[in-house]
Amino acid sequence: MSEGVGITGGDPLLALERVEEYIKLLKDVFSSRFHVHLYTTGTTLSGECVERLVKAGLDELRIHVVSNRSLDAARIALDYSIDVVVENPVIPGREDFLKSLIEKLSSMGVKYVNLNELEVSESNLDSLLLHGLKPSSSGRSVGGSRDTAIKLIEWVRECGLAISVHYCPAIYKDIYQYPRRLMRRAVSTKRFFEVIDGGVVRWVEVSGVDLRREWLAGAVIRYRDRYLVPLKLAEAIGLGTVVEALPTTPRRILNEYPWCQQCLD
């Protein structure tokens, strides 16, 4: 079971009452030890806002600094009994900005900064290219982002700043974080006719066969003109279409192929 949750958006503070409700619910269901952190730019944050979040059970505030208002938000949050973390992407060419930011955060008493390698995706590629940024050889991140982050960490060590700076590479999310998140979600949302295989769920869809008896017995699910069937039952029937999907809601189909024993071995 998950030991915590991150609340993000958009900016969750734009729906403060809903966020309060969810935090209280999570703490009630999973206990006070369940860690809740929230991501925000802090542009709408106030003392009253932090007080309400802390009272609801928030453990950690992660601020993406986009302006001086974000720094003001960090100062406000530092007066409360929650962890305050600044988390910013590393944009090549903005090394001086990040150095200045880290110095300010250190003097404020922020103990922890997380530098994210700037990732490349289908949704942001055009924007990155317009800003003169290019993908690295791996295609996961922007070229130069990793090198800039390493230089910043070395600079912090050389300056002896009293602040912890962590670098989060894009490959770590792809290889470790994302697959583990899928596996946990698969386990928690698995339907009785599915099997889990490395964070992917599989089942068999059968049409053209009368399975009303199995359906009435609760052994299969009828969906439109077909039945959703567990793999073991499909083996007995000897036909159907195997469906592989991500364990999202609704399921995101990745692959479909005719059922055969060799395919499942």
Can you describe this structure?
- By secondary structure, this protein is α/β, with parallel strands linked by helices.
- The chain has two domains: 4-178, Aldolase class I (TIM Barrel); 189-264, no CATH class.
- The chain is 40% helix and 24% strand.
- It has ten helices and twelve strands.
- It has helices at 16-30, 47-56, 68-77, 95-108, 125-130, 145-159, 170-189, 212-216, 231-237, 261-264, and strands spanning 4-7, 35-40, 60-63, 83-90, 112-117, 164-168, 195-197, 200-206, 221-223, 226-229, 241-246, 252-258.
- The strands form two sheets. It has a six-stranded parallel beta sheet. Strands 7, 8, 9, 10, 11 and 12 form a six-stranded antiparallel beta sheet that branches.
- Helix 2 links the parallel strand 2 and strand 3 (60-63).
- It is elongated and about 70 Å long.
- 22% of the residues are buried.
The CATH architecture category of the largest domain equals Alpha-Beta Barrel
Indicate the mean pLDDT. 90
Sheet-strand content, in percent, reads 15-25%
- Main sheet record: 6 strands, parallel
Low-confidence stretches: none
Compute the number of helices. 10
Radius of gyration over all CA atoms, rounded = 24 Å
Query: Per CATH, what is the topology of the largest domain?
Result: TIM Barrel
